[in-house]
């Protein structure tokens, strides 16, 4: 009865945490899931022909977290030809991974063994940040990083398990948990942050191993049992510390930090981080592409094109690099070549927002607003908070006569970016088209109050007021 009560209490504790998550997923996604609906995509990333055991984006070059759900959904929808719930998307990728394992069992087992080796290895495989970059900046962390790492922890834990084997009834849960956690990581793919759950489980075992080795050293006698413990520790240390080639953690960290700085508009610092990433990862096409983004944004299109060329030589599948190259070409007045780059980008990624937006701009300027609308819509779906794209779509809708929808888009754009002049003047046009002349006048006057008198938007506002009979 006591064991049954303990089991019931444990089950109740799990239910209190997981049942609300499952019920919410049932309401939103149509299936009772106690975690995210990413099982399928994550299983496929680690279990497909050519899988490396590391993270690989579903679409090459789109490793950012903001693309993961979108790409998993869009690729599954394209393959099955119908709209899918999140759970159905997960099922699609799960079934593909299982089909691969059934069709090529030996290759799958080889991949699984490689991922198990990565789980046990001392190398910290980074997601967006690697500890090596922080160690470069901190004397204390650098001093602690080498003696206090997974390559020391795991061998000591192995010694601890063997040293405490006679007390297995007392300690069996810790090695069992470690094996279960390691297996759950190896089935998918390996990140340092995924592997970190092993650390608190291994630490008590490592402490026992340290105590056992200290006892052997103090006794000064190398018995058969002591030799066995030492050899087991050395074997585990060899596996855990086997070299895996050059570390990428510092370079990937520079790449991630540069991306955050670029998004924040701190362009010189972003460029410096991307240059450090290129120096650390000269064969990484994405690093060269992001350096091109920084140079282009800083007004150096010619240098940006050189970076994009290197990126595409290394990774021709990078749709963002084609798009960035097109924008740089456009800045140099090479419009025809720019459009070719945008079209290449859309062949690789039909949802690339800047390529869709820029091709749509050309269609709009050529007098084809109906052809521009679906491209703007794809761009806005990929980047829903982009007020400029929303304003552009609104212009196309106004020219097709859909002033009501255009006004809704412009209201959202101005709520996010109140001083966006293009959205303000387009909103006045939409209001005038709906017969709300007084509100249109108010928008135009507000625009004149915020814009310099000689700006193109101020001139356009004055012209629009004149058409409304306002001096």
Q: Which features characterize this protein?
A:
471 residues, mainly alpha, elongated
Give a quick summary of the entry.
It contains 26 helices and no strands. With 471 residues, the chain is mostly helical.
Give a structural overview.
By secondary structure, this protein is mainly alpha-helical. The chain contains 26 helices and no strands. Helix 16 runs parallel beside helix 18 and helix 22 packs parallel to helix 24.
**N- to C-terminal separation?**
89 Å
How many helices in DSSP terms?
26
Shape: elongated
Radius of gyration: 29 Å
How would you state the average pLDDT, rounded?
Answer: 91
Say what oligomer this is. single chain
* Category by helix and strand content: mainly alpha
How many strands? 0
């Amino acid at each position: 009865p006591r064991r049954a009560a303990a089991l019931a209490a444990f089950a109740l504790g799990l239910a209190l945490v997981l049942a609300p998550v499952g019920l919410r997923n049932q309401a939103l996604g149509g299936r009772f899931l106690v975690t995210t609906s990413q099982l399928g995509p994550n299983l496929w990333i680690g279990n497909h022909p050519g899988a490396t055991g590391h993270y690989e984006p579903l679409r090459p070059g789109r490793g950012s977290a903001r693309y993961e759900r979108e790409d998993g959904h869009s690729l599954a929808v394209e393959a099955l030809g119908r709209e899918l719930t999140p759970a159905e998307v997960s099922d699609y990728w799960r079934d593909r991974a299982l089909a691969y394992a059934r069709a090529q069992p030996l290759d799958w087992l080889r991949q699984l063994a490689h991922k198990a080796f990565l789980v046990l290895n001392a190398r910290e495989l980074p997601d967006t940040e690697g500890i090596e970059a922080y160690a470069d900046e901190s004397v204390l962390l650098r001093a602690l990083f080498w003696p206090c790492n997974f390559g020391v922890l795991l061998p000591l834990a192995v010694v601890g398990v063997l040293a405490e084997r006679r007390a297995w009834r007392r300690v069996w849960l810790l090695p069992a948990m470690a094996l279960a956690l390691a297996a759950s990581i190896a089935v998918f793919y390996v990140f340092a942050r995924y592997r970190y759950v092993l650390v608190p489980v291994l630490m008590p075992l490592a402490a026992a191993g340290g105590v056992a080795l200290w006892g052997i050293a103090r006794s000064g006698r190398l018995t058969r049992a002591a030799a066995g413990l030492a050899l087991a520790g050395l074997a585990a240390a060899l596996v855990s510390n086997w070299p895996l080639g050059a570390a990428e953690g510092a370079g990937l960290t520079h790449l991630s930090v540069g991306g955050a700085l670029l998004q924040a508009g701190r362009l010189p610092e972003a460029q410096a981080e991307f240059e450090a990433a290129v120096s650390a990862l000269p064969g990484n096409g994405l690093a060269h592409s992001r350096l091109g983004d920084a140079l282009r944004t800083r007004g150096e299109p010619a240098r940006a094109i050189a970076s994009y060329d290197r990126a595409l030589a290394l990774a021709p599948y990078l749709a963002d690099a084609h798009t960035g190259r097109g924008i740089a070409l456009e800045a140099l007045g090479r419009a025809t070549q720019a459009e070719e780059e945008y079209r290449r980008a859309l062949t690789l990624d039909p949802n690339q927002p800047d390529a869709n937006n820029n091709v749509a701009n050309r269609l709009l300027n050529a007098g084809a607003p109906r052809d521009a609308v679906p491209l703007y819509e794809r761009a806005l779906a990929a980047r829903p908070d982009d007020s400029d794209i929303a304003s552009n779509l609104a212009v196309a809708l106004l020219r097709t006569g859909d002033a009501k929808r255009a006004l809704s888009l412009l209201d959202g754009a101005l709520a996010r970016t109140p001083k966006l002049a293009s959205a303000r003047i387009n909103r006045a046009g939409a209001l005038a088209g709906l017969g709300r002349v007084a509100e249109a006048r108010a928008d135009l006057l507000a625009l004149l109050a915020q814009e310099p008198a000689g700006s193109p938007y101020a001139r356009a506002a004055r012209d629009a007021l004149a058409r409304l009979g306002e001096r």
